[in-house]
Amino acid sequence: DTAxxxxxxxxxxxxxxxxxxxxxxxxxHDTMYWYKxxxxxxxxxxxSYNNKELIINExxxxxxxxxxxxxxxxxxxxxxLELGDSAVYFCASSQDETEAFFGQGTRLTVV
Amino acid sequence: AQxxxxxxxxxxxxxxxxxxxxxxxxxxxxxxxFWYVQYPxxxxxxxxxxxxxxxxVKGINGFEAEFNKSQTSFHxxxxxxxxxxxxxxxxxxxxxxxxSTFGDGTTLTVKP
Lengths: 111, 112
Hints:
The structure holds two protein chains of two kinds.
Chain A: E1 4-7, E2 10-13, E3 19-25, E4 31-37, E5 43-50, E6 53-57, E7 64-70, E8 73-78, E9 87-94, E10 101-102, E11 106-110
Chain B: E1 2-6, E2 10-14, E3 19-21, E4 23-27, E5 31-38, E6 44-50, E7 56-58, E8 64-68, E9 73-78, E10 87-95, E11 100-102, E12 106-111
Parallel strand pairs in B: 2-12
Antiparallel strand pairs in B: 1-4, 3-9, 5-6, 5-10, 7-8, 8-9, 10-11, 10-12
């Protein structure tokens, strides 16, 4: 049973396209996150949702729009993809301030 | 605001040698401290955490870390490493508002 699952695992797309990454957690956690890991493996938080409400929105282009239909799901939609968006995107969840549980990542390559 | 500094970007060691991965943090509020490990092509998984209580915390795979409030450090140690410990290690802090900040990572390479 996968605790935090995200799909797809790999995504190759052309510049200018719109794509979505889905994330689901079956841990019953209230908080979900999206992180971006670049080619140097630096990890930066993008968004955080608590019970479907946005609580953290770091400096991220507004081409990135998270959507949380319920507290078990947090999807990431990206419009007008650019080369610089190529990275690994991780979804995670947590309960209160305890540790985060991460998905396996989605490797996005924009060509 | 908080920040995390991992003092070594790469640490090469020989198998069965001890290792220490250094982490310093700064924050204007109380934080919780974590170490995560990322194996190649995988997500991060928790090694250990400090929330309160004893400053020496033990985690999985024989790792331990010590919280030092005066030095604002949370260094990770293992007395004898294995080849399988080769991975990327991240130190992280989280505030009680739920905001997490990660260090830039330390690549541990264990050589035979």
